[in-house]
Amino acid sequence: MPSNKYLRTAAATGCLALATGLTACGGSSSADSTGGKGGGEKVVTVYSADGLKGDKGDGWYDKVFADFTKKTGIEVKYVEGGSGEMVQRAVREKTNTQADVLITLPPFIQQADGKGLLQAYTPQGAEKVNGANKSSDGKWTSVVNNYFGFVYNKKELRSAPKTWEELLDAKYKGKIQYSTPGVAGDGTAVLIKSMHDFGGKEPAMEYLKKLQANNVGPSSSTSKLAPKTDKGEILVANGDVQMNFAQSKSMPNLGIWFPAKEGGKPTTFSLPYAAGLVAKAPHTENGRKLLDHLLGEDAQKLVSGVGGGFPARTDVKPTDANAVELTQLMAGVEVFEPDWADLDENLTGYVDAWKSATGS
C-alpha cells in the first residue's frame, strides 16, 4: 500500500465498528435571557451533513429526534447540506449564532474546530467511542461511524467495477459523477482516497484529470447521486456506506463497491458523522441533552437496523440483519487512516489542485 506525507496508513481488513440529508427547517435565531445557555426555550437547532434523515421520514435522525422530543419536550429544528456548506454557514453566522449542534464529516469537523465554531463538551457515553473518532479536547465526538464508498447501477452493469482505471473507459463517458470536493464531505473523500491509492497528490490529480472526460460535472450534494445511479441516468457515483446502504432498501438497482488501484486491494477509510456543541449556541443546555441522547445506548442500537450504519460506541454490537449484511460488505476491504491533521492544514491547497487539474 502506498505511503506518503499526505496520508498515514493504518490498515485493517474487514474492519467494522458498526457505525450516520437535509430538508431545511426554520431555525430559532435569538438567544434567550440566560445568555445563550438555552434554559428556557424548548428547541434545539441542528446543522448536519446529509445522509441520516430518511426521504420518507424513516431515517435514523427521524427516529432518534422523535424519541428525544418525546422524552424531553424539546423540538429539534433541522438544517442539512454538504459538510463544507454547513461549516461555511456556521462561519457566516458566527456573530449571530443560529445552530446549537453541528454534525459533519472529517475533515470539516476539524475545520469547524479550527475556526472557533465549537465549544468543549463530552457527551455521556463518549468514553465508549474509539479515540480516533473523537477529539482529545472534547470539541467533537462521532455519533455514527461510517465508511467511504462508491455506488453503481446493478441492472446496467453485470458486476461492479473493480479499479479506478476501469472508470476511464469510454463506456462511462457522461455516466460518472462525484460530489464536489471542498463542499461535500464525500466529495472531499474522493481526493483523500485517490491520494492514498495513487501514492500522493500529483499522481491522484493526474488520474482525476483523465477521469474528468467521463465526469458529468459537480454536485453539491452526494445524496442526490444515488437516485440518479439507481435510475440509470449515471452508472457510477461516489457516496458512503451508511447513506447508500439505507438508500438501497428503496433503490433496487443500487450496489456498493470500493475502487482499488490496478494491482492493489480495494480500500476505504472511516468517515464518521462527528458532532460538536456550537460555541455561543442559543440553546447550549438543550444541545448538550441532544448529544447525550445521540450517544445513548438506545439511539446507538438503532444505527444499523434503522440507519444502515455503524454505531460509534464500541460496546454496542448489533446482530440485526443489516449489521450482518454490512459485515459481509466490508469483508476484504482494507481500511486506512488518513492524516487528518495534514488534511485540516492543507485541504484548501488540495481542493485548489483538484480545481486546476479538472478545470472545475
How do the helices and strands line up, and which of them pair or pack?
Elements: E1 12-13, E2 43-49, H1 60-72, E3 75-81, H2 83-92, E4 101-104, H3 108-114, E5 118-119, E6 141-145, E7 148-153, E8 176-177, H4 185-198, H5 201-211, H6 225-231, E9 236-240, H7 241-248, E10 254-257, E11 267-269, E12 273-278, H8 284-294, H9 297-305, E13 310-311, H10 321-330, E14 334-336, H11 340-358
Parallel strand pairs: 2-3, 2-4, 8-9, 11-14
Antiparallel strand pairs: 1-14, 4-12, 5-12, 6-12, 6-13, 7-9, 7-10
Helix pairs in contact: 2-3, 4-5, 5-11
Distance between the termini: 29 Å
Let me know the average pLDDT.
Answer: 90
Tell me the number of helical segments per DSSP (H or I, 4 or more residues long).
11
Question: Structural class of the helix and strand makeup?
Answer: alpha/beta
Q: How many beta strands in the DSSP annotation? A: 14
Biggest beta sheet attributes: 7 strands, mixed
Beta fraction: 15-25%
CA radius of gyration is: 19 Å
Low-confidence stretches: 1-36
Shape: globular
Tell me the series of helices and strands, N- to C-terminal: EEHEHEHEEEEHHHEHEEEHHEHEH
Q: In percent, how helical is the residue content?
A: 25-40%
